[in-house]
Specification:
Blueprint (H helix, E strand, L loop, with lengths): L1 H15 L20 H10 L5 E6 L3 E7 L15 E3 L5 E6 L1 H22 L5 H15 L10 E9 L3 E7 L5 E3 L2 E5 L2 H13 L6 H16 L8 E7 L6 E2 L2 H14 L1
Antiparallel strand pairs: 1-2, 1-8, 2-9, 3-4, 4-5, 5-6, 6-7, 9-10
Helix pairs in contact: 5-6
Length: 260
């Protein structure tokens, strides 16, 4: 009886401390506060890559910029990327664990291809983002799966709605944005973007690219070289998703430096 009392007292003490008290051991169990710790840990895993991503929607374009870090001098830098094409017109920027990111990209390409096969036309970006969010949400319910430690930002020019910028996270939440960020400096970047977007600027393509670069540069307090960042763009004139070459990035960096 005495050992049982000690056990109960210990369990009560652990609960009263407000710690996770074992609720983080299982993905499908809520804590008494209504939290799913494993999902919260997945959000923290996004920051393990040490990267920050910024995306901005202009009047005729969408631009996403992320850092490019090559961890080993022996790695071929041309094979390292966080920007992927999902379809001809839809691109995405992944932030977080690289292997999880590639798995999610592969699934998104499969979903887009299946839609095209089934319905005979390209999947709209909001539907693709919704589908990826639904899949991520299922991972928070089933014990045999773990949430993916990555965040997907999608960009495209929609035939009906024009420039579109969406984001989906490990919890399965998704929605459209005027501008957004994710990663280590997410809070600072979002605050910077809020100030800039408050004036409702009339952003053409060049201004959109430069706003994204200046935001990332400001929050990280770094002056970038062209090889240290990646930029993915879609424009109304050229709705096919593409990544900018280093020479194009260099030109934007020079223009931005001259203006400042």
């Amino acid at each position: 009886l005495i050992p049982l009392l000690y056990f109960c007292a210990g369990a009560a003490l652990r609960m009263s401390r407000g710690s996770s008290a074992g609720f983080d051991r299982h993905i499908t169990i809520f804590s008494p506060e209504g939290r799913l710790y494993q999902v919260e840990y997945a959000f923290k895993a996004i920051n393990q890559s040490g990267l920050t991503t910024v995306a901005v929607r202009g009047k005729d374009s969408v631009v996403a910029i992320t850092q490019k870090k090559v961890t080993d001098k022996l790695i071929d830098a041309s094979t390292v990327t966080n920007i992927y094409r999902l379809t001809d017109k839809i691109g995405c920027v992944m932030t977080g664990m690289l292997a999880d990111s590639r798995s999610q990209v592969q699934r998104a390409r499969y979903e887009a291809a299946e839609w095209k096969y089934k319905y005979g036309y390209d999947i709209p970006m909001d539907m693709l983002c919704k589908r990826m969010g639904d899949i991520s949400q299922i991972y928070t319910q089933n014990a045999e799966m773990r949430p993916l430690g990555c965040c997907m930002i999608m960009l495209a020019i929609d035939d009906e709605y024009g420039p579109q910028l969406y984001k989906t996270d490990p919890a399965g939440y998704y929605c459209g944005f005027k501008a957004t960020s994710v990663g280590v400096k997410q809070i600072e970047a979002n605050s910077h973007l809020e100030k800039k977007m408050k004036k409702k600027p009339d952003l053409n393509y060049k201004a959109t690219v430069e706003l994204a670069i200046s935001c990332l540069s400001t929050v990280l307090a770094l002056d970038f070289k062209a090889a240290e960042i990646e930029i993915g763009v879609v424009t109304a004139d050229n709705p096919k998703f593409r990544t900018l070459r280093e020479t194009e990035i260099e030109k934007h960096l020079v223009d931005l430096a001259e203006r400042e």
